[in-house]
UniProtKB/TrEMBL annotation:
The lineage of its organism: Bacteria, Pseudomonadati, Chlorobiota, Chlorobiia, Chlorobiales. It is found in: Cytoplasm. This is 3-phosphoshikimate 1-carboxyvinyltransferase. One of its GO terms (molecular function) is 3-phosphoshikimate 1-carboxyvinyltransferase activity. 3-phosphoshikimate binds at residues 15-16, 20, 169, 171, 319, 346. Belongs to the EPSP synthase family.
Length: 434
């Protein structure tokens, strides 16, 4: 068991908010200044597609808090219809958020465009993108398997709609919102299971909470969005890896500064504290409409096994499930997950990816369509085990944390994949080593 102690001041800026700040900047009239934009490959892919569709984007390194160098991004736009027809397919690389959310904007532009990605992204479901955009009047073609390339025949005449989200997906909610900003009239999106709400917050949209627990998001069409500045807090999904490191390590204490504490993103904290984890929040405050603060974590022995089945909780920890399951397996020998079929549609089939690797590490698991169970650990492999990363940053980081914290020999088939969301992952862990 290794000891990790210290303060983390250079966690990556939030990936979800970075994407949205750039996309909203491209729809705003004037100059949008984004402070602390993420250097992660996924967010850089969003800047790349914006530039390839005619938006002026510049990026520079400046001094930030705690003596860190941070990125400032400047986006200049003339509003909702400032895009130009791209000369080539728009490359979204590994980023589902880029492909799906930008599709909502392209559907409203009066030209044809095509979105493509790397081999992982080309396998992910895009029917959820095509369905609402077709209802609004855009022409969308997908592969016969319902995947990218996403070919879009955009129109300036999108019609507003009332849309009930068929899956609890903030990406789908956001792409419909971005399309609806261009439509002639008011669109209403109904979500029965809450997903992250950054788009609504950043656009200042009206939301109506219904007595039955549903939420309606109201999007007025064709309103000018004046450019504003954004500050991006640290990424709570990245923080989860360091929380797990602190919990699993020996005699560890880590404080992570200025993390986004939006309740739709930190569901993993009450889940872990209910299992006995020593985690606390300090210094919480609101900046730019988002809650931010520090997360303090101390090593916890005898963490209770996590059992996750409530669909609202599943949606609230969707990106943390790889780390939570690996943490629970290593800390308690057990884990149970249900109602999480969405986990099979991420950068990899994460249910399969976690099970395959836990089995390599000697755990007994059972996989079913909407989840999996870790039943116990039959044996510990004698030598080093190489974990298969499946082109998936969260799979790589979850197992890397387990290896670093426990001292077991866990190697990664492709460590570079962490750069998708957390380029300084290994450096931060190294610096925390006591
Ligand atoms: O809106 C977002 O920023 C995201 C939403 C989630 O995807 P889904 O919308 O597919 O659930 C999440 O898994 C992804 O990492 C980021
Ligand atoms: C699912 C993820 O991202 P995306 O869908 O944007 O590729 C993720 O980062 O875990």
């Amino acid at each position: 068991m290794a000891v990790f102690k210290g303060e983390v001041t250079a966690l990556p800026p939030d990936k979800s908010i970075s994407h949205r700040a750039a996309l909203i900047g491209s729809l705003s009239e004037g100059v949008t200044e984004i402070t602390n934009f993420s250097a992660g490959f996924d967010n850089q892919s969003t800047l790349g597609v914006l530039q390839d569709a005619g938006i002026e984007v510049s990026q520079q390194e400046v001094d930030g808090a705690y003596g860190c160098r941070i990125r400032k991004v400047i986006i200049s736009s003339r509003g909702l219809w400032s895009f130009t027809a791209p000369e080539k397919p728009l490359m979204c690389n590994n980023s589902g958020s880029t492909m799906r959310m930008f599709a909502g904007i392209l559907a409203a532009q009066p030209f044809e465009s095509e979105l493509v990605g790397d081999s992982s992204l080309m396998k992910r479901p895009m029917k959820r993108v095509a369905d609402p955009l077709r209802l609004m009047g855009a022409g969308i073609d997908l592969s016969p398997a319902g995947t990218a390339p996403v070919r879009i025949r955009g129109t300036r005449d999108l019609t507003p709609l009332e849309y009930r989200l068929p899956v609890p997906s903030a990406q789908v909610k956001s792409l419909v919102t971005f399309a609806a900003l261009h439509a002639d009239g008011e669109t209403r999106i109904v979500e029965s299971i809450r997903s992250r709400d950054h788009t609504e917050l950043m656009l200042g949209l009206e939301t109506l909470d219904q007595p039955d627990g549903e939420r309606v998001i109201v999007i007025p069409g064709r309103k000018t969005i004046p450019a504003r500045s954004f500050y991006i807090p640290a990424d709570p999904s990245a923080a989860c890896f360091l929380v797990a490191l602190g919990l699993l390590g020996s005699n560890s204490e880590i404080i992570i500064r200025d993390v986004c504490l939006n309740p739709t993103r930190i569901e993993y904290i009450p889940l872990l504290t209910a299992a006995g984890a020593d985690i606390s929040i300090e210094n919480s405050r609101i900046i730019g409409g988002e809650a931010i603060g520090d997360i303090l974590v101390r090593t916890t022995r005898a963490l209770k096994p996590l059992v996750i089945s409530n669909p609202t909780v599943v949606a609230g920890v969707i990106d943390e499930l790889p780390m939570l399951s690996v943490l629970s397996a290593f800390a308690s020998g057990e884990f149970e997950l249900y109602n999480a079929e969405e986990l099979r549609t991420k950068e990899s089939d994460r249910i399969n990816a976690i099970v395959v690797n836990l089995e390599r590490l000697g755990f007994d698991c059972e996989q079913y369509p909407d989840g999996f169970r870790v039943i116990g650990r039959r044996s510990r492999p004698a030598g080093q085990v190489t974990v298969e990363c499946f082109d998936d940053h969260r799979i790589a980081m979850s197992f890397a944390v387990a290896g670093r914290a426990t001292g077991e020999g866990i190697a990664l088939s492709d460590g570079d994949v962490v750069g998708v969301s957390f380029p300084n992952f290994f450096e931060i862990i190294e610096n925390l080593k006591a």
